[in-house]
Amino acid sequence: MISAEQSHFNNRAEDYETDIGADYPQTLKWQLIKKYTDENDMVVDVGGANGRHAVDLAQAGRRVTCIDLSLGMLNKMRRRKSFLALEDHLKPKPIVAKAQSLPLASNSVDLAYCYATLLLIPDQEKAVAELARIVRPGGHVIVDIARPWNLGWIYWRHHYKKLGFPGIFPLNIKTTQKLFSDLSCVAVETIATGVLTQLLYIPFLEKKTSLRHWIHNVHETPDLDGKITAKFPKLANREYIVLRKDNRL
Question: What is each CA distance from 147 to 5, 151, 170, 246, in whole angstroms?
């Protein structure tokens, strides 16, 4: 039986954006992937949708597996011109699977990352544990974790519940620190975003003002939102966290 989440993303597959984007939160995701991988590394994109990052990463010489709950999204990736232009051995391998149960061997990849997905999973601790399991000792996991002390989640919780999703599931810092420790992973880089972004959910403010351009100037890295959030990380919308798996395992 197809879940509400699968149905929603299957229906969105044809018009789902493929461009990575130019604002800071989007470029940050790409920068972190590139920073912690080398050419020919084995990389897994969990929640990869239509290959928004996976195809570009394959073009950069990484060996990518793209995992998503939505068959429609993965089929869309297979039809993309940029995917078809790749040599067969470089085309991202599509796999339909849940993040909480990845059909990959333990200690088998150099990097696993998961963007804009964990916050939709009630038992996201299992998903993070799976990401850590498949990464080799000394390899890296990149995740974005939703934080609870941000007004943006009032909007998004309502939005996703209307679509039939269970909701939104932010985690506090203490919970994630314990989780990472239990998984024998250490955070080597943490970047918080979203303190100012929550203002965009005030009715009419984004449409009536140039606020988005002001806080997300595409020519700034980090942008104003990133700079302010760095000073008040507990109020972040989310944190991008790079974990290194203990290489003694």
Answer: 22, 10, 5, 25
> What 3-state class would DSSP assign to 94?
strand
What distance in Å separates the CA atoms of residue 104 and residue 110, rounded to the nearest whole number? 13
pLDDT single digits (tens) 86-123: 999 999 999 999 999 999 999 999 999 999 999 999 99
Which amino acid is located at 71 in the chain? L
In what side-by-side order are the strands of the sheet with 109-114?
93-96, 63-68, 42-46, 109-114, 135-146, 238-245, 185-193
State the pTM of this model. Answer: 0.95
**What does DSSP assign to residue 117?**
-
Residues in the chain, pLDDT under 70: 1, 249
Secondary element (H or E) of residue 93: strand 93-96
> Two tokens at 22?
């130019």
39-60: pLDDT as tens digits? 999 999 999 999 999 999 999 9
For the purposes of burial, counting CB atoms within 10 Å of the CB of 115, is it exposed (0-12), middle (13-18) or buried (19 or more)?
A: buried
Q: In 10 A of CB 71, how many CB atoms?
A: 15
Domains and CATH numbers, the chain: 4-149+169-192+237-244 (3.40.50.150)
CB 10 within 8 A of CB 4: no
Contact (CB, 8 A) for 198 and 152: yes
C-alpha to C-alpha distance for 183 and 133, rounded to whole angstroms: 8
CA distance 200 to 230: 19
The whole-angstrom separation of Cα 21 and Cα 226 is 16
- Calculate the alpha carbon distances from 94 to 82, 171, 227, 233 in Å: 15, 29, 36, 35
Identify which of 114, 126, 121, 233 has the alpha carbon closest to the alpha carbon of residue 172: 233
